Amino acid sequence: MTGAWGIARLRAPKYPDMRHTISILVENTFGALTRVAGMFSGRGYNIDSLNVAPTHNPEVSRITIVTRGDDDTLEQVVRQLEKLVNVIEITDFREHEYIDRELVLVKVKVDGKTRAEVMQITDIFRAKIVDVQAKSMTIEVTGNENKVEKFIHLMGNFGILTLTRTGKVALPRD
Q1: What is the DSSP string of 34-91?
Q2: Which one, of 72, 13, 63, lies nearest residue 38 by Cα?
Q3: How far is 30 from 75, CA to CA, in rounded Å?
């Protein structure tokens, strides 16, 4: 490849729109989440999912954010987060092995013919039926993104009435 076009193609990122998971430990104080979210919106970075809760130490919260972009974008995000007040530690999970989970509640349309099939799929996915009504079932499924997406896809065949997701949470394996 020669010429400017060939060079540009060689330098183009291999995966320009990769998903990245970032864990941010922050002081559990008023405004910490607002500053983190504001940094993303103020610089035009989108957040695919956001989860925040206190850790075992009530003075510290963990914010887990999933965002998209190339490696350069992620490096910019991390550098900007490091400058924020109340930020204690940032873990970019692209560099470490990690465990992630998401919880989903999905209400599915059922009738006398489909109820047993929905229950069988729920059992296969080790999901849990948390509510049963005459024309619907609410199911809780927990797992990694791939498992959750497959379950939602299968439930779509029966008719999803409503759905809510927690967003990804993650911890390093080490």
Answers
A1: HHHHHHHHHTT--EEEEEEEE-SSTTEEEEEEEEE--HHHHHHHHHHHHTSTTEEEEE
A2: 63
A3: 26
Residue 109's H or E segment, with its range, is strand 98-109
Residue-wise pLDDT for 79-88, tens only, equals 999 999 999 9
Q: For 96, which DSSP code?
A: S
Query: Position 95: which residue type?
Result: E
Enumerate the β-bridge partners of residue 140.
105, 128
List, for residues 62-110, the tens digit of each pLDDT value. 999 999 888 888 888 999 999 999 999 999 887 678 999 999 999 999 9
